[in-house]
Amino acid sequence: MKITQKRKVNRYMSFFRNNFGFRVPYQVLIDGTLCLAALEGQVRVSEQLIKYFQCELKLLTTQCVILEMEKLGSTVNGALSICKQFAVHKCGHEKKPITASKCLESMIAENNANRYIIATQDPSLREIARAVPGTPILYLHIRSPTLEKPSQQSNELAGLNIKTSIQSQGCTMERLRLIKKQELGLITEKKPFKRRRAKGPNPLSCKKKKKKTCIRESVVNVGASSSHPQRTNRRRRVKIALHIRQELASRLNVSKTSD
Ligand SMILES: [Zn+2]
């Protein structure tokens, strides 16, 4: 089996598992038309289907299907012998058999509660099965088993189920909040939603304002860095070297004596 085909089967069956409660071993209801196609294509049904689904299966047919084939006579003897390989499932028409298609239709009824996979080559039965949500449909395409894409009805019901489960979850949360409030006196009221808005331009994206420097400060703070504004008001103490001070002192003394 091709990888794409394998993925397709897994995807479709996981859809039915998640939305309609299908479980392994899957129950496959097989009718006479599929057995006839299998005979013509020389397909070993049980072997091929297990290979196709890659899991355990319950291959079933009904008494109505077998009786209908028996009525058709020797022309379908080969197909009948294939059909008789499968387990005969109770259909409720044991006393009054009906046609095979009507029998399988009644088995899936309104919502396919027993989760059957319908295996048929009959286009009208496939059409009926499509209308029943949660019914996988299988047929033989040339010689290989093929699972139909989930029908629109199945997809619609699955979508509806998801929607209601989300809504019920919401209701449960609301009820829990009320119980908490009543029993524990906890205030679990939701805060009103407040949209967060930008309060101003992003400071990181703005250019810094240039600070005005007065001339006096610039004179006093010669060489002082502009990044230290607290130092601007301080007078800077200038250290004079010892030999310069001595020179200055000696000059002052000379000027005093000359006076
Ligand atoms: Zn029946």
**Uncertain runs with pLDDT below 50, 5 residues or more?**
222-226
Give the CATH architecture of the largest domain.
3-Layer(aba) Sandwich
CATH homologous superfamily of the largest domain, by name? 5'-nuclease
CATH C-level label of the largest domain: Alpha Beta
Total domain count: 3
Tell me, rounded to a whole number, the average pLDDT: 83
Task: Give me the Rg, rounded.
Answer: 45 Å
Strand content: 5-15%
The helix fraction, in percent, is 40-55%
Main location: nucleus
InterPro entries: Fcf1/UTP23, PIN-like_dom_sf, UTP23_sensor
Organism: Daphnia galeata
Keywords: Nucleus, Ribosome biogenesis, rRNA processing
What characteristics describe this protein?
259 residues, single chain, six-stranded mixed sheet, Rossmann fold, 10% strand, 3 domains, alpha/beta, 6 strands, elongated, binds zinc ion
